[in-house]
Structures are given as C-alpha cells and as structure tokens.
Amino acid sequence: MSNFDPSVRINRRRALALGGGVAAGGMLSAASPLTATAATLRREHRRQQGTLPVEKIQRIVQAQGTVTKGVLSIDIERLDMPKVAGPLGVTFRPDFELNGSLTFQPLGHDYAIFNGNTPALKPQECEPVIDAIIRNGLKFEAFHQHYIETRPNVWFIHFRGEGNPLNLARAVHNVLKATSTPLPQTKPSHPTTPLDPDRLASILHGSAQVGSEGVVMSTIDRTDKIVIDGIHVSPELNISTDVEFKPTSSSGSRAWGAPDFSMTSSEVQPVVSLMRKQGWFVSCLYNQETNEHPQLYFAHMLKEGDAYTLAREIRRGLNLTATK
C-alpha cells in the first residue's frame, strides 16, 4: 500500500520513515534528523481534533465499531475459537476474554493515532503477527498472556501506529490477516442479557455495552493525562480499565467478572492488595504501551459471583486509581 500523503505535514516520525524507505511512511520511526528536544516540543501539541472517516475505516478493517468521544473502537472476536478453558473452571468465549480492541483517535486533517491489541492468538500465529506489524510500519508494543492455565494456550500482542487513518486501517487489516480470525465481523443486532447493564455501569461509574451471549462490557476512563510518543491520548484509546461480565446462566445475576485494571506504578500495590483481600484471582501484570508517560500497568483478574457484588468490589479497586 502507498503511505505517503502529501497533504499531511511532515513531522519527525514521517520524515524519518520516508527517508529510511520504510514501507508504511508516517507510522514507523528510526533515526531522526531533528533533535529530541525539538521533536518533543513539536509533538506535544498533538492532541485530539477533527473527525475520523469511520465508515471507510470499518470497511477496510472489515468489522464494525463504536464511536465514543470521537474515538472509534472496534472489537474483534476469535469466532474460530468456540471456547478456551481458563483458570478456576471458567470457559472463555469469542466475546469474553478472547476478543481484541482496535482504537483510532483523530489528530487533525487526514491524521490519526491507532492503538490496539489483537484478539487471542494461537502460538503459531504470534511470530507471523509480529512480522506483519513490522512489515506494515506499525509499532510492536507488548506480547503476553492475559490469563495463566489457558487450554489451548493463547497470547495477545499490542501494537500502534500514526498517520493517515485509512493507511492505518489497511495496515491493521494486514496484521489481522496474519491470523485465522474470521472476517468480516458485525456487531450483534439485538443482544440480550440476564444482567442489568445500566445498574452495572452505575456501580462502576462507566459505560455499558451488551455483546453476544449476554456478555456486558464496561469501560471506566482514567482522568489523568496520558502521553504516548508525545501525543496526549484520549482515555478511550485502549488505556482505561475494561471490565467484562459473562452470565453463568440465562437467568439470574450470577456471572464471571473479569476486570483489566489500568494503573500507574503507585496504584499497582494498593489495587492488587485490595483485590486479593476480596478474593480475586490475579492473573498477570504487564505494560501495554511503549514510550508512555506516566507508564501504565495492566492486570487481568477473575472471580465468579453475583455480578453486582463483583462490580462493587471492582469499584473499590477503581477508587484507588485516577478514575471518576
């Protein structure tokens, strides 16, 4: 694909990607002709502005998304993985802890930042995905498991890019094609759940969205300023706390709760200590983004019980982080 757009001002990353002959133009950096100070000052002014060509991005990626506060978020499910056994006897499904998130934030005319993570990857897909990220001029950020003891074993890779939003969408689609993830994908038209999404959202102080098989997904935004590569990113750009609730039956309030806490270094110990005291299974601790200030840490946790009791316990953990 062609990645040079003459209508976009040449900034530090674009200048050096073009000068080095890298395949995806303004999305990959190497050595800069600008001083670090000049580049930082120039990029610190980059923040959300304008709108995205949402319909075109969705057609290229071959999946539908949701726009929240100007940021497009597309969930990708591993529909070819009907179930994965996890810890504590839980079963992960395509819409529950096997999904990935692709987010796009506008930065001005024909310019955007992408940040996201793949859906669950089979071990044999991991290296081809890393190769596809590099080949398409995107940035490889993180590589880890979300939960231990998964059968079959699954992995997740985080990646990002910056440039023309349609070129970013093409690059992201090429990464997805390195997996056997079925495309295209559409959101369920009339999803139902035995849980009360509005009640869960109220307890968590977040959003509520119902997916397939009754899973309720909530995002609780961080309220502090997070900068990635000198860009002031939106809380919606895959950096806030996400929570999923999977009902254990077609009626009642029993569910598996699965928060993915977003924390600064000073928040990690208080949050993890409290959640362990409340009986939560803590499965991982990792970074998602590189060159992020302040650096965020993420921890996936798991517990089964009454959904609203679980939500109140998660909220107590959130109270120890920079959230509303």
Structure description:
- The chain has 324 residues and is an alpha+beta fold.
- The chain has 2 domains: 129 residues, no CATH class; 122 residues, no CATH class.
- Helices cover 24% and strands 28% of the residues.
- The chain has a 6-stranded antiparallel β-sheet.
- Helix 3 runs parallel beside helix 5 and helix 4 packs antiparallel against helix 5.
- The protein starts with 11 loop residues before the first helix and ends in a 6-residue tail after the last helix.
Main attributes?
alpha+beta, 324 residues, 6-stranded antiparallel sheet, globular, 2 domains, disordered N terminus
Q: Averaging pLDDT over every residue, what do you get?
A: 89
SSE-based structural type: alpha+beta
Give the N-to-C terminal Cα separation.
42 Å
Q: Roughly what fraction of the amino acids lie in strands?
A: 25-35%
Order of helices and strands: HHHEEEEEEHEEHHEEEEEEHEEEH
C-alpha Rg, in Å?
Answer: 19 Å
Largest sheet: 6 strands, antiparallel
Question: Strand order within the widest sheet?
Answer: 1-2-5-6-8-7
Number of strands: 17
State the low-pLDDT regions, or none: 1-42
Q: What's the assembly state of these chains?
A: single chain
Estimate the helix proportion, in percent: 10-25%
Indicate the overall shape.
globular
Our count of helices gives 8
